[in-house]
Amino acid sequence: MNDEPLNIGTRRELFLDRYLIEKLDHASLRMGTPRREENVIDFDRPWEGRFVGSTNVLKDDDCYRMYYRCSGYGDDGGEKILLEQTAYAESTDGINWVKPELNLHEFRGSTKNNLILPDGDERRISHNFAVFKDPRAGVPE
């Protein structure tokens, strides 16, 4: 083994294998066992459809913000089409979630929904939508 430590800088590293671990005394690497917990949010709105994925949660000061892709099949003049859109929910504790009526986009004749990016042409498709907070936002140059 090399006597020099591996410099990983300030990066965080997961111990998934033995690459960064020289030896283990009275310890072992093993997979955790998943356990069933309660649901924290139900995806039960008509615009959410049958498929919800690409869920992103970020903490923004005192608010947890959830952005998620929702999709299902709609009807376009008798032809079934796949709808893909992005919706929003928020929480103060990360457990109890609210889907606010944002009134931004229409779905089946109403804007009473939590859609932030509706189904649309290829310029607005929300497939694999990902969210991040720009740490420079709001900082004057």
Tell how many strands the DSSP assignment holds. Answer: 4
Strand order of the largest sheet: 1-2-3-4
For the biggest sheet, the summary is: 4 strands, antiparallel
Overall radius of gyration: 21 Å
Return the string of H and E elements: EEEE
Residue share in β-strands: 25-35%
Distance between the termini: 49 Å
The percent range for helix content is under 10%
Task: Please tell me what the overall shape is.
Answer: elongated
Average per-residue pLDDT, rounded, comes to: 82
Number of helices in the DSSP assignment: 0
- Unreliable residue stretches: none
Write structural notes for this entry.
The chain has 141 residues and is mainly β. The chain has a domain at 46-117. The protein has no helices and four strands. The protein has strands at 51-60, 63-76, 79-91, 115-117. A four-stranded antiparallel beta sheet has the order 1-2-3-4, with no helix packed on it. A hairpin with a 2-residue loop joins β2 (63-76) and β3 (79-91). It starts with 50 loop residues before the first strand and ends in a 24-residue tail after the last strand.
